[in-house]
Amino acid sequence: MISTLPKWAGGILESLVGQRAEVIGTTYLSPHLKKVRFQSDLAKMNFQIGYASVIRVNEIEYRNYTIAYHDMQLGILDIIFHIHNNGPGSSYADTLSVGDHLYISSPRGHKVYNPKFQHQLLFGDETSLGLAYSLLPTLKKNNHSFQFYLELDDANREVPELLGLENCSIFPKNGSFSDAEWVDGLPIFHHENWLHASYTLVGNVTSVQAFRKALKRNGVNRITTQGYWLQGKKGL
After folding, report:
1. Which of 232, 161, 236, 234 is nearest to 202 (CA)?
2. N or C: which end of the chain has fewer CB within 10 A?
3. Which ranges of the sequence are coiled-coil (predicted)?
């Protein structure tokens, strides 16, 4: 993940791989979650579920953000930002308003969707809502059995419903998912179909690692993981 670059190198990078975009809409889904709509020429961009774009958030720092929605014909894309006031990306996103211009890279990363698995589960937190939103239409179109497991702050518990997400189980951020033995007690481990499901675990590194450990202990092998942040480490 690109994190920091000298100012001069950042300018060169943007001229080579950046696409100029304009903010055309902003919506606060909660005081801590902000959906921003950008307009740009998307013809050269590669959109895959789970791919993220790089945005320059100050003179030397860059952050990756998952694309929540895009429309090639209209030239629009949405990103859901977590506003938590603990990092340069959060602070930058909070300031974005209609009419602002910036450079955004073509999305890239790891594909998280495998259509071969009938049962699919996505686990994450506020930082994964964009991924969940982008994944939902495909899961429904292809008639998957699916679940979203989301650990959210109390202020954000209603956001999945606002986004139209379905089959959501909302968990409080009380450290439960950092305990692999507690994760072992989740209902999915008592149903044979979910032991052969595809799991995508993203967000808090500590939670992701504990969930993965519990899955492996129960014989689950189809697991995709990506930590978006780690407590105490400078990030979003």
Report:
1. 236
2. N
3. none
Higher-pLDDT residue of 106, 16: 106
* Residue 235 three-state SS: coil
Q: First CA to last CA across the chain, in angstroms?
A: 12
Query: How far apart, in whole angstroms, are the C-alpha atoms of residue 209 and residue 167?
Result: 23
Three-state secondary structure readout of 167-228 = CEEEEECCCHHHCHHHHCCCHHHHCHHHHHCEEEEEEEHHHHHHHHHHHHHCCCCCEEEEEE
Question: Where does residue 208 rank: exposed (0-12), middle (13-18), buried (19+ CB within 10 A)?
Answer: buried
Q: For residue 236, is pLDDT > 50?
A: no
CA proximity to 235, closest of 87, 106, 115: 87
Asked if residue 105 lies in contact with residue 54, where contact means CB atoms within 8 angstroms, the answer is: yes
| CA gap 133, 138 in Å, rounded | 10
Better-predicted residue by pLDDT, 6 or 125: 125
CA distance 18 to 27: 24
Q: What is the pLDDT of residues 81-100, one digit of tens each?
A: 999 877 888 999 999 999 99
The pLDDT value recorded for residue 5 is: 46
